[in-house]
Amino acid sequence: MFKKITIAAVVLIAALLVFAATRPDTFRVQRAASIKAPPEKVFALLNDFQRWEAWSPWEKKDPAMRRTFSVVTSGKGAQYAWEGNKEVGQGRMEIAESVPPSKVAIKLDFVKPFEAHNAVEFTLEPKGEATNVTWAMQGDTPLSREDRPRVPDMDKMVGKDFEAGLANLKTLAEK
Fold first, then answer.
1. Alpha carbons 168 and 54: distance in angstroms, whole number
2. Per residue in 105-125, pLDDT tens?
3. Sign of CA dihedral 19, 20, 21, 25
4. Model pTM above 0.85
């Protein structure tokens, strides 16, 4: 009986390790929306960290979140740090590239709930009287291969937040 239990445990552990090995080392989450506003108006909301409170989905998850802004809050070099509850964690962002009115690239560093270093990019493309906005985040898959099966994939973790943020951005920009 003991031998059967040991064999079953070894097979289960081996299956878990094989599953973990098949998970990718990197991820990319991307969502898009069409906003009936000129790209300049949408760009202004993305390029200034102080304006994120009006549309970012994470701002609503922890109204008591502590925020710190650099002296310059918009454009290349602007920085924003936060520390909040378990839903928002702790981290910082820095605008790495700002190309009015078509692109904002951000270096995103998480400290909690786990350490991660990601790249975020907003691209804006005019389409008639609207602007197509794409929000993408990519980086290394957090945690070791052995721990990954316990963590949902990044798309499931933040995809709905991206959708909510784009909906908030649309409402704000279309006013």
1. 8
2. 999 999 988 788 999 999 999
3. positive
4. no
**Torsion, CA 20, CA 22, CA 24, CA 25, rounded to 10:** 60
41-86, pLDDT tens digit by residue? 999 999 999 999 999 998 888 989 999 999 999 999 999 999 999 9
- Over the chain, what HEC string results? CHHHHHHHHHHHHHHHHHHHHHCCCEEEEEEEEEECCCHHHHHHHHCEHHHHHHCCHHHHHCCCCEEEECCCCECCCCEEEEECCCCCCEEEEEEEEEECCCEEEEEEEEEECCCEEEEEEEEEEEECCEEEEEEEEEEECCCCCCCHHHCCCHHHHHHHHHHHHHHHHHHHHCC
C-alpha distance from residue 13 to each of 6, 134, 151 (Å): 11, 40, 17
Q: Tokens at residue 139, please?
A: 């980086």
